[in-house]
Amino acid sequence: MTLTSTTSARRLAATLAAAAICSTVAATTGAAPAGAVPIGPGCPALYILGVQGTGQSSPTADPLADTGVVGALLAPVLSAAPGLVQRSYIPYGAGFGGVVPGGGPDPYTVSVTDARNQLDAAATQIADACPDTLVAGVGYSQGAQAMSDFAADIGAGVGPIGADRIAGIALYANPDRALGAPVIPGRPGQLVPDPAPGTSGAAVSQVAITNPPAGGAGIAGAIGYGDLTGRVADICTEGDLACSAPDRAAFLRVGAEIAAQADLRNPIAALGTLNGLLHAALGDAWMTVLLGDFAVGGGNVDYLPQEGLAARLVEAADPRTPVPDGDAAAGRWDEIVATVAANPIVLLPKLAGQLTAAWGQLLADNVDLVNPAVLLRYADTVARHNGYATSGQLGSGIAWMVALAHDIAGSR
Questions:
Q1: Which residues contact 168 (CB under 8 A, 6 or more apart)?
Q2: β-strands 134-140, 166-172 pairing
Q3: Distance between CA atoms of 95 and 76, rounded to whole angstroms?
Q4: Which of 23, 120, 274, 372 has fewest C-beta within 10 Å?
Q5: Angle (nearest 5°) at CA 95 between 214 and 242
Q6: Which domains are delineated in the chain?
Q7: Are 244 and 236 in contact (CB under 8 A)?
Q8: pTM strictly above 0.85
């Protein structure tokens, strides 16, 4: 995922060609070619890309059908800002290893990657075809994870388009939500999103993302948004395990990350796959500990953790984490063994004490898993996860997208 650059001439040629193709298709059939984003007639002030949640899309889904949670947000936006907004939905597998009704057979991580790749292609096509159009994104659940990854890369300057082309990103039930994140990540206490690039923000200034903040964190991980900070809203219902998982439940996150990588349709085969993934994660975590948490030198060895064992396990189970250098880890282990063997009477008791303390911290980092009061918060987690459209959680997002469209149109 790298930021591409072209000459002005090539960009203009691509823009004119894409605009001509899309306008012709829209005028004659009302649809876009297979795999293309439906644009037209004409270029809007704001183009919104939506990514549905698990079980709410498919590779053959109609990109213009306002269904699911994201459809419940975008349909009112179209009605409230006619002519200013166009939208389409990313058609993808939306699966979790084949066990979620309506979802495809692929493992969750494969499904999210597919959605992310299509987001990149869609945003690039819109940016090329409509140079004055700004892009917004709305993602729910699995779709929010793909959208948050898309936003994070753009905010870091390594996405498919520049941050100056993004008007706003709305995330609902985001598995990548940071611990205790406010509704506008990186801006505690801020309720009004930042203006879209190049606009006065007059309409957006009248919008407040007043959804109640949630505790806990996303079940998958946490990322930041760089240059998009202030233009990303991360909305989570308290007790929704996808985005509000308890803080001290590292084993739960490890289990979720491992399950996300497996084909779960055949229980017997799935057990073998899950066992292999778990062993690989444990091995990667141990190599990371060896390389990052042991200090060796001058005849001494100390375990000085830069991160706790719980964090190391969660990172290792995440398929996005690079695999550690196995040869370097083996070399560090040999170095530790040789140093301890030269002075076991002093070093063994010290290391035993340090590692015992680390083990105790690992247990503390999972204490929420055996706390009845904490577990009670998730008694109706499925209803909370599925209830964003019916509980009024989408209202502020609708108002925000409409305001963005008016601000962008007014800036032209």
A1: 136, 137, 193, 196, 231, 232, 233, 400, 401, 404
A2: parallel
A3: 27
A4: 372
A5: 10
A6: 8-246+385-411 (3.40.50.1820), 250-372 (no CATH)
A7: yes
A8: no
Give the burial class of 334: count Cβ atoms within 10 A of its Cβ; 0-12 exposed, 13-18 middle, 19 or more buried. Answer: exposed
Amino acid at 369: L
R_g of the chain, CA atoms, integer Å: 24
Tens digits of residue pLDDT in 210-235: 999 899 999 987 789 999 999 999 99
Residues 53, 234: Cα–Cα separation, whole Å? 15
| Angle of the 267-293 helix axis to the 309-317 helix axis, nearest 10 | 130
Q: Are 99 and 73 in contact (CB under 8 A)?
A: no
Peptide bond into 91 cis (omega under 30): no
Q: Is 297 left (phi over 0), alpha (psi -120 to 50) or beta?
A: left
Per-residue pLDDT tens over the stretch 257-299: 888 888 887 788 888 888 888 899 999 999 999 999 999 999 9
Two tokens at 80?
């409230």
CA distance 49 to 139: 8
